[in-house]
Protein backbone atom coordinates (compact mmCIF):
# COMPACT_ATOMS: atom_id res chain seq x y z
CA UNK A 1 0.00 0.00 0.00
CA UNK A 2 1.26 3.44 -0.84
CA UNK A 3 1.46 5.87 2.02
CA UNK A 4 2.09 9.57 1.85
CA UNK A 5 4.39 9.73 4.83
CA UNK A 6 7.14 7.18 5.08
CA UNK A 7 9.71 6.84 7.79
CA UNK A 8 13.19 6.81 6.27
CA UNK A 9 15.21 3.76 7.27
CA UNK A 10 17.63 4.77 10.01
CA UNK A 11 21.24 4.84 8.79
CA UNK A 12 23.89 3.09 10.84
CA UNK A 13 24.89 4.72 14.10
CA UNK A 14 22.12 7.18 14.01
CA UNK A 15 21.58 9.27 17.10
CA UNK A 16 18.16 9.41 18.66
CA UNK A 17 16.65 11.91 21.04
CA UNK A 18 15.22 10.82 24.34
CA UNK A 19 12.04 12.61 25.28
CA UNK A 20 10.60 12.35 28.74
CA UNK A 21 6.84 12.69 28.35
CA UNK A 22 5.29 13.06 31.76
CA UNK A 23 4.71 12.19 34.55
CA UNK A 24 2.98 15.56 34.85
CA UNK A 25 2.64 16.54 31.25
CA UNK A 26 -0.70 18.28 30.64
CA UNK A 27 -1.33 16.31 27.44
CA UNK A 28 -1.35 12.97 29.22
CA UNK A 29 -4.43 13.68 31.39
CA UNK A 30 -3.14 11.97 34.46
CA UNK A 31 0.12 10.84 35.93
CA UNK A 32 1.73 8.80 33.20
CA UNK A 33 5.38 8.80 32.36
CA UNK A 34 6.65 7.65 29.01
CA UNK A 35 10.28 7.76 28.06
CA UNK A 36 10.29 8.02 24.31
CA UNK A 37 13.14 7.40 21.94
CA UNK A 38 12.53 9.84 19.13
CA UNK A 39 13.74 9.97 15.56
CA UNK A 40 12.82 13.55 14.86
CA UNK A 41 9.06 13.64 15.15
CA UNK A 42 8.69 9.85 15.05
CA UNK A 43 8.67 7.50 18.00
CA UNK A 44 11.14 4.66 17.73
CA UNK A 45 10.44 3.11 21.10
CA UNK A 46 8.42 4.06 24.14
CA UNK A 47 8.61 2.81 27.68
CA UNK A 48 5.86 3.58 30.16
CA UNK A 49 6.50 3.85 33.88
CA UNK A 50 3.47 3.49 36.09
CA UNK A 51 2.72 3.45 39.79
CA UNK A 52 2.91 7.15 40.58
CA UNK A 53 -0.37 7.11 42.46
CA UNK A 54 -0.25 3.57 43.79
CA UNK A 55 -2.21 3.45 47.04
CA UNK A 56 -1.95 -0.22 48.03
CA UNK A 57 -5.65 -0.91 47.61
CA UNK A 58 -5.27 -4.66 47.74
CA UNK A 59 -3.42 -4.51 51.05
CA UNK A 60 -5.88 -1.97 52.45
CA UNK A 61 -8.80 -4.18 51.45
CA UNK A 62 -7.38 -7.06 53.49
CA UNK A 63 -7.73 -4.91 56.60
CA UNK A 64 -11.25 -3.57 56.11
CA UNK A 65 -14.67 -5.12 56.63
CA UNK A 66 -16.55 -5.83 53.42
CA UNK A 67 -18.71 -2.74 53.51
CA UNK A 68 -15.68 -0.50 54.05
CA UNK A 69 -13.98 -1.73 50.90
CA UNK A 70 -16.53 0.16 48.78
CA UNK A 71 -14.84 3.57 49.14
CA UNK A 72 -11.60 1.99 47.90
CA UNK A 73 -13.29 0.89 44.70
CA UNK A 74 -14.43 4.49 44.07
CA UNK A 75 -10.86 5.44 43.51
CA UNK A 76 -10.13 2.92 40.80
CA UNK A 77 -11.82 4.30 37.71
CA UNK A 78 -12.99 7.58 39.15
CA UNK A 79 -14.71 8.60 35.91
CA UNK A 80 -17.34 5.93 36.52
CA UNK A 81 -17.05 5.07 40.19
CA UNK A 82 -20.67 3.87 40.64
CA UNK A 83 -19.91 0.89 38.37
CA UNK A 84 -16.99 -0.04 40.60
CA UNK A 85 -19.07 0.34 43.76
CA UNK A 86 -21.96 -1.70 42.48
CA UNK A 87 -19.59 -4.29 41.01
CA UNK A 88 -18.10 -4.74 44.45
CA UNK A 89 -21.51 -5.00 46.11
CA UNK A 90 -22.49 -7.65 43.60
CA UNK A 91 -19.27 -9.57 44.24
CA UNK A 92 -20.00 -9.70 47.97
CA UNK A 93 -23.63 -10.59 47.28
CA UNK A 94 -22.42 -13.45 45.10
CA UNK A 95 -20.22 -14.68 47.95
CA UNK A 96 -23.06 -14.39 50.45
CA UNK A 97 -25.63 -15.84 48.10
CA UNK A 98 -27.89 -12.78 48.33
CA UNK A 99 -30.55 -12.47 45.64
CA UNK A 100 -31.49 -8.85 45.07
CA UNK A 101 -35.03 -7.87 44.03
CA UNK A 102 -35.63 -6.92 40.41
CA UNK A 103 -36.31 -3.33 41.38
CA UNK A 104 -32.85 -3.02 42.95
CA UNK A 105 -31.32 -4.51 39.81
CA UNK A 106 -33.06 -2.00 37.57
CA UNK A 107 -32.10 0.95 39.77
CA UNK A 108 -28.52 -0.30 39.64
CA UNK A 109 -28.68 -0.60 35.88
CA UNK A 110 -29.82 3.03 35.64
CA UNK A 111 -26.90 4.20 37.77
CA UNK A 112 -24.34 2.06 35.97
CA UNK A 113 -25.50 3.28 32.57
CA UNK A 114 -25.41 6.89 33.72
CA UNK A 115 -21.85 6.23 34.86
CA UNK A 116 -21.00 4.70 31.50
CA UNK A 117 -22.34 7.79 29.77
CA UNK A 118 -20.18 10.10 31.87
CA UNK A 119 -17.15 7.89 31.36
CA UNK A 120 -17.55 7.81 27.61
CA UNK A 121 -18.34 11.49 27.29
CA UNK A 122 -15.16 12.39 29.12
CA UNK A 123 -13.08 10.07 26.97
CA UNK A 124 -14.59 11.12 23.67
CA UNK A 125 -14.47 14.81 24.46
CA UNK A 126 -10.84 14.49 25.55
CA UNK A 127 -10.03 12.93 22.17
CA UNK A 128 -11.57 16.12 20.79
CA UNK A 129 -9.36 18.25 23.02
CA UNK A 130 -6.25 16.44 21.86
CA UNK A 131 -7.14 17.08 18.26
CA UNK A 132 -7.68 20.75 19.03
CA UNK A 133 -11.42 20.98 19.64
CA UNK A 134 -11.90 22.24 23.18
CA UNK A 135 -15.46 23.42 22.66
CA UNK A 136 -17.07 19.99 22.69
CA UNK A 137 -15.31 19.10 25.93
CA UNK A 138 -16.65 22.11 27.79
CA UNK A 139 -20.07 21.60 26.27
CA UNK A 140 -20.56 17.99 27.38
CA UNK A 141 -19.10 18.66 30.80
CA UNK A 142 -22.21 20.64 31.58
CA UNK A 143 -24.15 17.42 31.04
CA UNK A 144 -21.82 15.47 33.26
CA UNK A 145 -22.72 17.98 35.93
CA UNK A 146 -26.38 16.93 35.63
CA UNK A 147 -25.42 13.29 36.12
CA UNK A 148 -23.38 14.25 39.16
CA UNK A 149 -26.41 16.03 40.56
CA UNK A 150 -28.30 12.76 40.17
CA UNK A 151 -25.56 10.89 42.06
CA UNK A 152 -25.66 13.58 44.69
CA UNK A 153 -29.35 13.04 45.22
CA UNK A 154 -28.88 9.26 45.48
CA UNK A 155 -25.91 9.09 47.79
CA UNK A 156 -24.78 12.60 48.67
CA UNK A 157 -21.48 12.65 46.82
CA UNK A 158 -20.35 13.29 43.31
CA UNK A 159 -17.02 11.95 42.14
CA UNK A 160 -16.11 9.22 44.61
CA UNK A 161 -19.65 8.10 45.15
CA UNK A 162 -19.66 5.15 47.58
CA UNK A 163 -23.10 4.50 46.17
CA UNK A 164 -25.47 1.85 47.53
CA UNK A 165 -24.84 -0.89 50.02
CA UNK A 166 -24.35 -4.62 50.07
CA UNK A 167 -27.91 -5.77 49.42
CA UNK A 168 -29.36 -2.65 47.86
CA UNK A 169 -29.56 1.07 48.47
CA UNK A 170 -29.67 3.04 51.68
CA UNK A 171 -32.85 4.85 50.63
CA UNK A 172 -35.45 4.65 47.92
CA UNK A 173 -35.44 6.69 44.73
CA UNK A 174 -38.19 9.26 45.11
CA UNK A 175 -40.29 10.76 42.32
CA UNK A 176 -38.18 13.88 42.22
CA UNK A 177 -35.07 11.85 41.48
CA UNK A 178 -36.72 9.71 38.83
CA UNK A 179 -38.03 12.89 37.22
CA UNK A 180 -34.50 14.25 37.19
CA UNK A 181 -33.21 11.12 35.46
CA UNK A 182 -36.05 11.36 32.95
CA UNK A 183 -35.20 15.00 32.33
CA UNK A 184 -31.57 14.08 31.72
CA UNK A 185 -32.32 11.38 29.19
CA UNK A 186 -34.69 13.64 27.28
CA UNK A 187 -32.29 16.59 27.19
CA UNK A 188 -28.99 14.79 26.75
CA UNK A 189 -29.58 13.25 23.27
CA UNK A 190 -29.67 16.68 21.60
CA UNK A 191 -26.36 17.58 23.22
CA UNK A 192 -24.73 14.30 22.33
CA UNK A 193 -25.98 14.57 18.77
CA UNK A 194 -24.54 18.04 18.47
CA UNK A 195 -21.25 16.88 19.97
CA UNK A 196 -21.03 13.97 17.56
CA UNK A 197 -21.87 16.15 14.58
CA UNK A 198 -19.02 18.41 15.63
CA UNK A 199 -16.46 15.63 15.30
CA UNK A 200 -17.81 12.47 13.71
CA UNK A 201 -17.76 13.65 10.09
CA UNK A 202 -15.30 16.47 10.63
CA UNK A 203 -12.59 16.22 7.97
CA UNK A 204 -9.79 17.42 10.26
CA UNK A 205 -10.84 15.08 13.04
CA UNK A 206 -11.12 12.13 10.66
CA UNK A 207 -7.71 12.82 9.16
CA UNK A 208 -6.20 12.97 12.60
CA UNK A 209 -7.80 9.79 13.93
CA UNK A 210 -8.41 7.28 11.12
CA UNK A 211 -5.59 4.78 10.91
CA UNK A 212 -3.94 6.15 14.04
CA UNK A 213 -3.12 3.92 16.99
CA UNK A 214 -4.76 0.87 15.52
CA UNK A 215 -4.50 -2.68 16.84
CA UNK A 216 -5.66 -5.93 15.30
CA UNK A 217 -8.19 -8.17 17.02
CA UNK A 218 -5.60 -10.91 17.58
CA UNK A 219 -3.11 -8.59 19.21
CA UNK A 220 -5.85 -6.95 21.24
CA UNK A 221 -6.97 -10.32 22.59
CA UNK A 222 -3.41 -11.34 23.36
CA UNK A 223 -2.92 -8.09 25.24
CA UNK A 224 -6.08 -8.71 27.26
CA UNK A 225 -8.06 -5.80 25.85
CA UNK A 226 -11.65 -5.54 26.99
CA UNK A 227 -14.41 -3.00 26.73
CA UNK A 228 -14.73 -0.41 23.97
CA UNK A 229 -11.08 -0.82 22.96
CA UNK A 230 -11.56 -4.51 22.18
CA UNK A 231 -14.89 -3.89 20.51
CA UNK A 232 -13.31 -1.22 18.30
CA UNK A 233 -10.92 -3.92 17.10
CA UNK A 234 -13.90 -6.01 16.05
CA UNK A 235 -14.52 -8.46 18.90
CA UNK A 236 -18.05 -8.27 20.29
CA UNK A 237 -17.18 -9.15 23.88
CA UNK A 238 -19.28 -7.37 26.46
CA UNK A 239 -19.72 -8.72 29.99
CA UNK A 240 -23.25 -7.33 30.12
CA UNK A 241 -24.24 -9.79 27.39
CA UNK A 242 -21.85 -12.68 27.94
CA UNK A 243 -22.51 -12.99 31.67
CA UNK A 244 -25.46 -10.78 32.50
CA UNK A 245 -25.42 -9.41 36.03
CA UNK A 246 -27.95 -7.16 37.70
CA UNK A 247 -30.68 -8.38 35.29
CA UNK A 248 -29.04 -7.01 32.14
CA UNK A 249 -30.65 -9.95 30.34
CA UNK A 250 -34.00 -8.13 30.59
CA UNK A 251 -32.85 -5.30 28.33
CA UNK A 252 -32.54 -4.97 24.59
CA UNK A 253 -29.42 -3.25 23.38
CA UNK A 254 -26.82 -3.55 20.66
CA UNK A 255 -23.09 -4.00 21.02
CA UNK A 256 -21.38 -1.64 18.57
CA UNK A 257 -18.11 -2.91 17.12
CA UNK A 258 -15.44 -1.34 14.96
CA UNK A 259 -13.06 -2.82 12.42
CA UNK A 260 -9.56 -1.45 12.61
CA UNK A 261 -9.28 -0.70 16.32
CA UNK A 262 -7.93 2.78 15.63
CA UNK A 263 -8.67 6.01 17.46
CA UNK A 264 -11.64 6.81 15.22
CA UNK A 265 -13.21 3.39 15.75
CA UNK A 266 -12.81 3.69 19.49
CA UNK A 267 -14.44 7.12 19.33
CA UNK A 268 -17.36 5.79 17.31
CA UNK A 269 -17.85 2.70 19.49
CA UNK A 270 -18.04 4.85 22.62
CA UNK A 271 -20.35 7.30 20.92
CA UNK A 272 -22.76 4.54 19.97
CA UNK A 273 -22.55 2.95 23.42
CA UNK A 274 -23.82 6.19 24.87
CA UNK A 275 -26.92 5.90 22.68
CA UNK A 276 -27.39 2.30 23.79
CA UNK A 277 -26.99 3.33 27.44
CA UNK A 278 -29.68 5.96 27.02
CA UNK A 279 -31.97 3.32 25.57
CA UNK A 280 -31.24 0.98 28.48
CA UNK A 281 -32.05 3.72 31.00
CA UNK A 282 -35.32 4.42 29.18
CA UNK A 283 -36.23 0.73 29.27
CA UNK A 284 -35.34 0.52 32.96
CA UNK A 285 -37.47 3.54 33.79
CA UNK A 286 -40.39 2.03 31.89
CA UNK A 287 -40.00 -1.25 33.77
CA UNK A 288 -39.80 0.55 37.10
CA UNK A 289 -43.03 2.35 36.40
CA UNK A 290 -44.88 -0.96 36.36
CA UNK A 291 -43.41 -2.04 39.69
CA UNK A 292 -44.55 -1.15 43.19
CA UNK A 293 -42.34 1.36 44.94
CA UNK A 294 -40.56 0.88 48.21
CA UNK A 295 -38.47 -2.20 47.53
CA UNK A 296 -34.93 -0.93 47.51
CA UNK A 297 -32.92 -3.59 49.33
CA UNK A 298 -32.76 -7.34 49.69
CA UNK A 299 -34.19 -8.77 52.92
CA UNK A 300 -30.84 -9.82 54.39
CA UNK A 301 -30.62 -8.13 57.81
CA UNK A 302 -27.37 -9.93 58.59
CA UNK A 303 -25.53 -8.01 55.86
CA UNK A 304 -27.54 -4.93 54.96
CA UNK A 305 -26.81 -2.07 57.33
CA UNK A 306 -30.19 -0.98 58.73
CA UNK A 307 -31.42 2.61 58.36
CA UNK A 308 -30.04 4.89 61.02
CA UNK A 309 -33.40 5.94 62.42
CA UNK A 310 -34.24 2.28 63.03
CA UNK A 311 -30.94 1.72 64.78
CA UNK A 312 -31.88 4.41 67.30
CA UNK A 313 -35.45 3.27 67.82
CA UNK A 314 -35.67 -0.48 67.21
CA UNK A 315 -33.96 -3.26 69.12
CA UNK A 316 -33.70 -5.63 66.14
CA UNK A 317 -32.02 -3.02 63.94
CA UNK A 318 -29.64 -2.03 66.73
CA UNK A 319 -28.52 -5.64 67.20
CA UNK A 320 -27.89 -6.13 63.50
CA UNK A 321 -26.10 -2.83 63.21
CA UNK A 322 -23.83 -3.82 66.10
CA UNK A 323 -23.18 -7.26 64.68
CA UNK A 324 -22.38 -6.01 61.19
CA UNK A 325 -20.11 -3.23 62.38
CA UNK A 326 -18.30 -5.43 64.89
CA UNK A 327 -17.90 -8.19 62.32
CA UNK A 328 -19.81 -10.87 64.17
CA UNK A 329 -21.71 -12.04 61.14
CA UNK A 330 -20.91 -15.41 59.63
CA UNK A 331 -19.46 -15.00 56.15
CA UNK A 332 -19.08 -18.11 54.00
CA UNK A 333 -15.63 -19.29 53.07
CA UNK A 334 -14.93 -19.42 49.40
CA UNK A 335 -13.55 -17.73 46.37
CA UNK A 336 -15.49 -15.65 43.92
CA UNK A 337 -14.70 -14.01 40.63
CA UNK A 338 -17.22 -11.46 39.54
CA UNK A 339 -16.88 -9.22 36.52
CA UNK A 340 -18.81 -6.18 35.45
CA UNK A 341 -18.53 -4.13 32.28
CA UNK A 342 -16.80 -1.02 33.52
CA UNK A 343 -16.38 2.19 31.60
CA UNK A 344 -13.21 0.97 29.95
CA UNK A 345 -13.48 -2.80 30.09
CA UNK A 346 -14.02 -5.86 32.19
CA UNK A 347 -13.63 -4.87 35.81
CA UNK A 348 -13.17 -8.06 37.80
CA UNK A 349 -13.09 -8.73 41.51
CA UNK A 350 -11.32 -11.87 42.66
CA UNK A 351 -12.23 -12.33 46.29
CA UNK A 352 -11.02 -15.02 48.66
CA UNK A 353 -12.90 -15.22 51.94
CA UNK A 354 -11.66 -17.20 54.93
CA UNK A 355 -14.84 -16.54 56.88
CA UNK A 356 -13.45 -13.47 58.61
CA UNK A 357 -14.85 -9.96 58.60
CA UNK A 358 -12.37 -8.76 55.98
CA UNK A 359 -11.49 -10.28 52.62
CA UNK A 360 -8.57 -12.69 52.94
CA UNK A 361 -7.38 -11.59 49.54
CA UNK A 362 -8.93 -9.23 47.06
CA UNK A 363 -7.55 -8.71 43.61
CA UNK A 364 -8.95 -6.14 41.24
CA UNK A 365 -8.79 -7.00 37.56
CA UNK A 366 -8.28 -3.47 36.35
CA UNK A 367 -8.91 -3.29 32.60
CA UNK A 368 -6.63 -0.38 31.80
CA UNK A 369 -3.70 -1.82 33.77
CA UNK A 370 -3.84 -4.79 31.47
CA UNK A 371 -4.32 -3.06 28.13
CA UNK A 372 -2.03 -0.10 28.74
CA UNK A 373 0.94 -2.43 28.24
CA UNK A 374 0.08 -2.49 24.53
CA UNK A 375 0.75 1.25 24.36
CA UNK A 376 4.44 1.00 23.30
CA UNK A 377 3.49 -1.34 20.48
CA UNK A 378 0.65 0.91 19.35
CA UNK A 379 2.77 4.05 19.17
CA UNK A 380 5.87 2.51 17.60
CA UNK A 381 6.66 4.33 14.39
CA UNK A 382 3.95 6.95 14.80
CA UNK A 383 4.33 10.66 15.37
CA UNK A 384 4.36 12.14 18.84
CA UNK A 385 1.05 13.93 18.39
CA UNK A 386 -0.56 10.63 17.37
CA UNK A 387 0.79 8.98 20.50
CA UNK A 388 -1.01 11.57 22.62
CA UNK A 389 -4.23 10.82 20.76
CA UNK A 390 -3.74 7.09 21.10
CA UNK A 391 -3.34 7.42 24.82
CA UNK A 392 -6.41 9.55 25.35
CA UNK A 393 -8.51 7.29 23.14
CA UNK A 394 -7.50 4.22 25.18
CA UNK A 395 -9.23 5.73 28.22
CA UNK A 396 -6.41 4.95 30.62
CA UNK A 397 -7.39 6.20 34.06
CA UNK A 398 -4.46 6.75 36.41
CA UNK A 399 -6.40 5.70 39.49
CA UNK A 400 -7.31 2.37 38.00
CA UNK A 401 -3.92 1.82 36.42
CA UNK A 402 -2.05 2.23 39.68
CA UNK A 403 -4.60 0.86 42.14
CA UNK B 1 -16.29 -27.09 16.83
CA UNK B 2 -19.09 -28.73 18.73
CA UNK B 3 -22.57 -27.43 18.15
CA UNK B 4 -23.53 -27.39 21.80
CA UNK B 5 -21.86 -25.09 24.29
CA UNK B 6 -19.22 -26.74 26.41
CA UNK B 7 -19.84 -27.14 30.12
CA UNK B 8 -17.87 -27.86 33.26
CA UNK B 9 -18.28 -31.65 33.03
CA UNK B 10 -17.06 -31.69 29.47
CA UNK B 11 -13.98 -29.56 30.16
CA UNK B 12 -13.19 -31.61 33.26
CA UNK B 13 -13.49 -34.81 31.29
CA UNK B 14 -11.27 -33.52 28.53
CA UNK B 15 -8.65 -32.23 30.93
CA UNK B 16 -8.68 -35.44 32.96
CA UNK B 17 -8.23 -37.53 29.86
CA UNK B 18 -5.12 -35.53 29.00
CA UNK B 19 -3.66 -34.51 32.39
CA UNK B 20 -5.56 -36.85 34.71
CA UNK B 21 -2.95 -37.37 37.42
CA UNK B 22 -1.92 -33.72 37.64
CA UNK B 23 -5.24 -32.11 38.47
CA UNK B 24 -6.39 -31.84 42.06
CA UNK B 25 -9.05 -29.94 44.02
CA UNK B 26 -11.41 -30.01 41.06
CA UNK B 27 -14.38 -27.95 42.09
CA UNK B 28 -16.77 -25.31 40.82
CA UNK B 29 -17.08 -22.71 43.57
CA UNK B 30 -19.78 -20.20 42.61
CA UNK B 31 -20.04 -21.76 39.16
CA UNK B 32 -16.44 -21.27 38.10
CA UNK B 33 -14.54 -24.48 37.35
CA UNK B 34 -11.32 -24.44 39.37
CA UNK B 35 -8.40 -26.77 39.84
CA UNK B 36 -4.94 -26.99 41.29
CA UNK B 37 -2.06 -28.12 39.15
CA UNK B 38 1.65 -28.60 39.91
CA UNK B 39 3.81 -25.67 38.95
CA UNK B 40 5.95 -27.73 36.59
CA UNK B 41 3.01 -28.34 34.29
CA UNK B 42 0.91 -25.20 34.72
CA UNK B 43 2.16 -23.44 31.61
CA UNK B 44 1.95 -26.67 29.59
CA UNK B 45 -1.69 -27.10 30.60
CA UNK B 46 -2.55 -23.48 29.82
CA UNK B 47 -0.80 -23.79 26.47
CA UNK B 48 -2.78 -26.91 25.67
CA UNK B 49 -6.03 -25.22 26.71
CA UNK B 50 -5.21 -22.22 24.57
CA UNK B 51 -4.23 -24.18 21.50
CA UNK B 52 -6.87 -26.89 21.67
CA UNK B 53 -9.02 -26.26 18.59
CA UNK B 54 -12.20 -27.03 20.47
CA UNK B 55 -11.77 -25.37 23.84
CA UNK B 56 -9.87 -22.22 22.74
CA UNK B 57 -9.06 -20.67 26.11
CA UNK B 58 -7.31 -17.87 24.33
CA UNK B 59 -8.00 -15.00 26.70
CA UNK B 60 -6.08 -14.51 29.93
CA UNK B 61 -8.52 -12.59 32.09
CA UNK B 62 -6.47 -12.34 35.23
CA UNK B 63 -3.30 -13.50 36.89
CA UNK B 64 -2.55 -12.82 40.51
CA UNK B 65 -0.63 -14.11 43.49
CA UNK B 66 -1.98 -15.51 46.74
CA UNK B 67 -0.28 -16.21 50.06
CA UNK B 68 -1.45 -18.79 52.59
CA UNK B 69 1.21 -18.96 55.34
CA UNK B 70 -0.58 -21.89 57.04
CA UNK B 71 -0.29 -24.26 54.07
CA UNK B 72 3.18 -25.52 54.86
CA UNK B 73 5.24 -26.19 51.76
CA UNK B 74 2.52 -24.69 49.57
CA UNK B 75 2.46 -21.15 50.92
CA UNK B 76 2.58 -19.12 47.74
CA UNK B 77 0.43 -19.50 44.72
CA UNK B 78 -0.47 -18.01 41.38
CA UNK B 79 -4.08 -17.98 40.20
CA UNK B 80 -4.87 -17.81 36.50
CA UNK B 81 -8.32 -16.97 35.20
CA UNK B 82 -8.78 -18.09 31.62
CA UNK B 83 -11.72 -17.33 29.41
CA UNK B 84 -12.83 -19.15 26.29
CA UNK B 85 -14.60 -16.33 24.50
CA UNK B 86 -15.93 -18.65 21.80
CA UNK B 87 -17.81 -20.76 24.34
CA UNK B 88 -18.12 -18.06 27.00
CA UNK B 89 -16.62 -20.39 29.57
CA UNK B 90 -14.30 -19.38 32.39
CA UNK B 91 -11.71 -21.52 34.11
CA UNK B 92 -9.54 -20.96 37.17
CA UNK B 93 -6.19 -22.64 37.52
CA UNK B 94 -4.17 -22.39 40.71
CA UNK B 95 -0.66 -23.51 41.33
CA UNK B 96 1.05 -23.56 44.72
CA UNK B 97 4.70 -23.81 45.70
CA UNK B 98 6.85 -23.27 48.78
CA UNK B 99 7.79 -19.81 50.01
CA UNK B 100 11.44 -20.78 50.03
CA UNK B 101 11.46 -21.42 46.29
CA UNK B 102 9.01 -18.94 44.77
CA UNK B 103 9.40 -19.76 41.10
CA UNK B 104 7.06 -20.59 38.29
CA UNK B 105 7.32 -20.48 34.51
CA UNK B 106 6.19 -17.34 32.76
CA UNK B 107 2.97 -17.09 30.80
CA UNK B 108 4.32 -14.28 28.63
CA UNK B 109 5.20 -16.86 26.01
CA UNK B 110 1.45 -17.42 25.55
CA UNK B 111 -0.17 -14.08 26.35
CA UNK B 112 1.24 -10.58 25.99
CA UNK B 113 -1.13 -9.53 28.76
CA UNK B 114 0.78 -11.66 31.27
CA UNK B 115 3.76 -9.33 31.16
CA UNK B 116 2.57 -6.62 33.53
CA UNK B 117 0.37 -8.97 35.53
CA UNK B 118 3.44 -11.07 36.33
CA UNK B 119 5.46 -7.98 37.12
CA UNK B 120 2.72 -6.94 39.53
CA UNK B 121 2.69 -10.41 41.11
CA UNK B 122 6.46 -10.29 41.48
CA UNK B 123 6.25 -6.82 42.95
CA UNK B 124 3.72 -7.78 45.62
CA UNK B 125 4.61 -11.41 46.37
CA UNK B 126 8.19 -11.87 45.22
CA UNK B 127 7.22 -14.70 42.90
CA UNK B 128 9.82 -15.12 40.18
CA UNK B 129 8.55 -15.95 36.74
CA UNK B 130 11.16 -17.94 34.87
CA UNK B 131 11.66 -16.66 31.35
CA UNK B 132 9.92 -13.32 31.88
CA UNK B 133 11.51 -10.74 29.57
CA UNK B 134 11.58 -7.86 32.04
CA UNK B 135 10.83 -8.88 35.61
CA UNK B 136 11.02 -5.61 37.52
CA UNK B 137 8.81 -3.96 40.11
CA UNK B 138 5.93 -2.11 38.55
CA UNK B 139 3.77 -0.29 41.06
CA UNK B 140 6.08 0.04 44.06
CA UNK B 141 9.31 1.96 44.00
CA UNK B 142 12.36 0.18 42.71
CA UNK B 143 14.42 0.34 45.90
CA UNK B 144 11.79 -1.33 48.06
CA UNK B 145 13.30 -4.29 49.86
CA UNK B 146 10.25 -6.43 50.57
CA UNK B 147 7.09 -7.70 48.87
CA UNK B 148 4.24 -5.97 50.64
CA UNK B 149 1.25 -8.23 50.00
CA UNK B 150 2.85 -11.16 51.82
CA UNK B 151 0.85 -11.81 54.95
CA UNK B 152 3.75 -11.29 57.37
CA UNK B 153 3.87 -7.58 56.61
CA UNK B 154 1.45 -5.35 58.53
CA UNK B 155 -0.64 -2.73 56.78
CA UNK B 156 1.58 0.12 57.86
CA UNK B 157 5.12 0.27 56.64
CA UNK B 158 7.15 -1.12 59.53
CA UNK B 159 10.35 0.38 58.22
CA UNK B 160 9.19 3.93 58.73
CA UNK B 161 10.60 5.83 61.68
CA UNK B 162 8.85 9.16 61.21
CA UNK B 163 5.48 8.02 62.50
CA UNK B 164 5.15 8.09 66.25
CA UNK B 165 2.13 6.51 67.85
CA UNK B 166 1.49 9.44 70.16
CA UNK B 167 0.69 11.65 67.19
CA UNK B 168 -1.96 9.22 66.03
CA UNK B 169 -3.74 8.72 69.33
CA UNK B 170 -2.44 5.20 69.95
Describe this structure in words.
Chain A is mostly helical and 403 residues long. Chain A has a single domain (65-401), classed as Cytochrome-c3 Hydrogenase, chain B (Orthogonal Bundle). Chain A has 17 helices and 6 strands. Chain A has helices spanning 57-61, 66-74, 81-96, 102-131, 134-155, 175-199, 203-209, 217-222, 227-232, 239-242, 263-289, 308-313, 315-326, 367-371, 375-379, 384-393, 398-402; strands spanning 17-21, 33-39, 42-49, 334-341, 346-353, 361-365. In chain A, α2 packs antiparallel against α3 and α4 runs antiparallel to α16 (384-393). Chain A is globular, with a radius of gyration of 22 Å. The mean pLDDT of chain A is 89. Chain B is an alpha/beta fold and 170 residues long. Chain B has helices spanning 8-19, 42-51, 114-125; strands at 24-27, 33-36, 59-67, 76-84, 89-97, 103-105, 128-130. Chain B has a 5-stranded mixed beta sheet. A two-stranded parallel ribbon of chain B has the order 6-7. Chain B contains 3 helices and 7 strands; from the N terminus they run αββαββββαβ. Chain B is 20% helix and 24% strand. Chain B has a single domain (3-158), classed as Beta Polymerase, domain 2, CATH 3.30.460.80. The interface between A and B is large, with 40 and 34 residues.
List keywords for this structure.
heterodimer, A: 403 residues, mainly alpha, Cytochrome-c3 Hydrogenase, chain B, 3-stranded antiparallel beta sheet, B: 170 residues, alpha/beta, Beta Polymerase, domain 2, 5-stranded mixed beta sheet, two-stranded parallel sheet
Distance between the termini of chain B: 64 Å
Number of extended strands of chain A? 6
Class from helix and strand fractions of chain A: mainly alpha
Task: Report the β-strand fraction of chain B as a percent range.
Answer: 15-25%
Contiguous runs where pLDDT drops below 50 for at least 5 residues of chain A:
none
CATH architecture of chain B: 2-Layer Sandwich
What's the helix count of chain B?
A: 3
CATH superfamily of chain B, called what?
A: NADH:ubiquinone oxidoreductase Nqo5 subunit
- Global mean pLDDT of chain A: 89
Number of domains of chain B: 1
Mind describing the biggest β-sheet of chain B?
5 strands, mixed
Order of helices and strands of chain A: EEEHHHHHHHHHHHHHEEEHHHH
Under CATH at level 1, the class of chain A stands as Mainly Alpha
Amino acid sequence: METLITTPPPPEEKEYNILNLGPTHPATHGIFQNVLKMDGEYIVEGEPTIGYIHRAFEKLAEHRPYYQVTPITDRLNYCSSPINNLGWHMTVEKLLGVKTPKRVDYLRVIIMELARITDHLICNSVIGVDTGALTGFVYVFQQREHVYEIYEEICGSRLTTNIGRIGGFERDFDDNLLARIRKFITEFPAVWKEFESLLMRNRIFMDRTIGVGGISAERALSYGFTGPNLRAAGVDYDVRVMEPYSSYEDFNFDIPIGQSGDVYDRFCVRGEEVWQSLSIIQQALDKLEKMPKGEYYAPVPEFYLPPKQDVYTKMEALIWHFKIVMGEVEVPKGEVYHAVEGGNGELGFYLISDGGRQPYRLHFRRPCFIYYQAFPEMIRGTMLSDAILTMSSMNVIAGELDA
Amino acid sequence: MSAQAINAEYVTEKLQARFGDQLSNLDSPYGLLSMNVPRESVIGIIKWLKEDPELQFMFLTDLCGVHFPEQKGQELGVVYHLHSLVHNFRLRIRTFFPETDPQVDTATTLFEAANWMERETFDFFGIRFKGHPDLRRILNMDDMTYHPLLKQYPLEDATRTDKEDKYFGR
